[in-house]
Amino acid sequence: MAIERSMFLEILKDAYSAYYTIFPVEEPGELPLVFRAEYCSRDEQYFLSKKANIWRNEKREYCYVFSAPGFDAETVERCVDWALEEMLPKVKPHKEHQYTNCKVLFVADDMDDQVMKAIRRRKFSRSYGLLSTQGYTELLTAGVDLDREKTVTNPMGQDLAKFFGKLFALRHEEAQSK
Fold first, then answer.
1. pLDDT of residue 26
2. Looking at the whole model, is its pTM more than 0.85?
3. How far from 28 is each of 23, 140, 172, CA to CA, in Å?
4. Distance CA 68, CA 22 (A)
5. Ranges in the chain, pLDDT < 50
6. What is the pLDDT of residues 65-83, one digit of tens each?
7. What is the pLDDT of residue 4?
8. For residue 175, what pLDDT is reported?
9. CA 62, CA 50: separation in Å to the nearest integer?
10. 56 bridge partner residues
């Protein structure tokens, strides 16, 4: 029993809205971007007074969610390239910058093996400063095949597979309780 794509996108948007700021796409463009989400966290530790700062760090993530009945490998490449081009100018390295990651998610009713291979093989990383002293950027990609309830990720996006697995499990629990 496959989940409907529109329902899954609402579940995904709701899950991301807990920590991310959601930006829905008003006017569809040539790429099937549904929404993007941004996350920013700034942590610091100080001793007795805020003037006696021990450490500070800043983390950012930009998530781009693309949805279509199906994708081809060329469209996947174009979507990832577009997301990186849109995100990279927003990276502002400095001594308190830990990371700025780019997540690109593909949600489809059905994905063939070539598309899954393209998602799995896509990589990007960049270090800022000497020995990454000003942080780094990594690309996390994931593809969700709703018919088979299967998720594929690149090596950096392995936590996304666990996240989507929890969403599928939650959906099954809700379906059984009805």
1. 82
2. yes
3. 13, 23, 31
4. 19
5. 1
6. 999 999 999 999 999 999 9
7. 87
8. 63
9. 29
10. 44
Angular region, 149: left φ>0, alpha ψ -120 to 50, beta rest: left
Here the tokens at position 75 are: 């469209």
Distances (CA, A) of 119 to 1, 57, 82, 114: 25, 30, 14, 9
Model pLDDT for residues 134-163, shown as the tens digit of each residue: 999 999 999 999 998 899 999 999 999 999
The set of residues, in sequence order, having a beta carbon less than 8 Å from that of 70 and lying 6+ positions away, is 108, 109, 110, 111, 112, 115
Measured in residues, the chain has a length of: 178
Q: Please tell me the predicted confidence (pLDDT) of residue 1.
A: 47
Backbone phi, psi, residue 26, to 5°: -75, -50
Q: Is the Cα torsion angle 90, 11, 161, 117 positive or negative in sign?
A: negative
What is the DSSP code string of the chain? Answer: -PPPHHHHHHHHHHHHTTTSEEEE-SS--SS-EEEEEEEEEEEEEESSSTTSEEEEEEEEEEEEEEEES---HHHHHHHHHHHHHHHGGG----TTEEEEEEEEEEEES---HHHHHHHHH---EEE-SGGGTT-EEEEEEEEEETTTTEEEE-GGGHHHHHHHHHHHHHHHHHHHH-
- As given in the structure block, the two tokens for residue 34 are 């549904």
